[in-house]
Design a protein that fits this description.
Layout: E1 8-10, E2 16-18, H1 30-43, H2 46-49, E3 51-53, E4 60-62, E5 66-68, E6 110-112, H3 113-120, H4 140-143, H5 147-153, E7 156-159, E8 162-164, E9 170-172, E10 177-180, H6 183-189
Antiparallel strand pairs: 1-2, 3-4, 5-6, 7-10, 8-9
The protein binds zinc ion.
Length: 193
């Protein structure tokens, strides 16, 4: 037998026994209703749903996995890297200035448990902003771009091709191709007539 309905259970001997569930089931008593309602409320509690960003890597994570950055502020010096950050310039000829201090997302005041554990060991987390992943403040105009709009303004367009193998894993089939988008040409063409 391959398919069994939920009212059958498999015994140790491998046979399926009929539980002879009544239908319709009897009305649930108040205790059961209370247990169901309170466990639903518990699951939907704000603390189980709320998410916030990690100051070290910027990843959005459930709040229950985050702790305050100020608890590890004495260890954050390992995230001080040069050549990663850049203050906004209004003109191409303006000199480049970096932000001082550890490379963090200063709009977040919490840190993900995994990042905190790495920092406590004196290691920079692999996906930390300090590992060359810092972006800075994203302007409102760029925050809500659609996929095609992102392609149009990307300075470098990249693509890579993967195939799924028998084990369900993926492997790369071709090289990554990266080529520069002709942005000035696009600017002259947009907006379309
Ligand atoms: Zn993190």
């Amino acid at each position: 037998m391959h398919a069994v309905s939920s009212k059958y259970v498999r015994t140790k001997s491998g046979n399926y026994d009929d539980l002879a569930t009544e239908f319709p089931p009897s009305i649930a008593d108040n205790d059961l209703l209370h247990t169901i309602a309170s466990s639903v409320c518990k699951k939907m509690n704000k603390s189980n749903i709320e998410e916030a960003g990690c100051a070290v890597c910027g990843e959005i994570t459930p709040v229950r996995n985050l702790s305050q950055v100020k608890n590890i502020k004495n260890l954050l010096h390992i995230l001080t890297t040069s050549g990663v950050t850049c203050k906004e310039r209004k003109n191409q000829n303006d000199p480049l200035h970096e932000y001082s201090g550890p490379v963090l997302d200063y709009t977040c005041n919490r840190v993900y448990d995994h990042c905190r554990a790495c920092i406590r060991k004196g290691k920079t987390p692999r996906l930390a902003l300090a590992n060359g992943l810092w972006l800075g403040k994203v302007p409102d105009e760029l925050k809500s771009l659609r996929f095609v709009e992102k392609l149009l303004i990307a300075r470098v367009w990249h693509t890579c091709s993967y195939v799924k193998v028998a084990s369900g894993m993926r492997k790369m089939k071709a090289n990554i191709i990266a080529f520069e988008s002709p942005i000035p040409k696009i600017y002259n063409i947009l907006p379309p007539p």
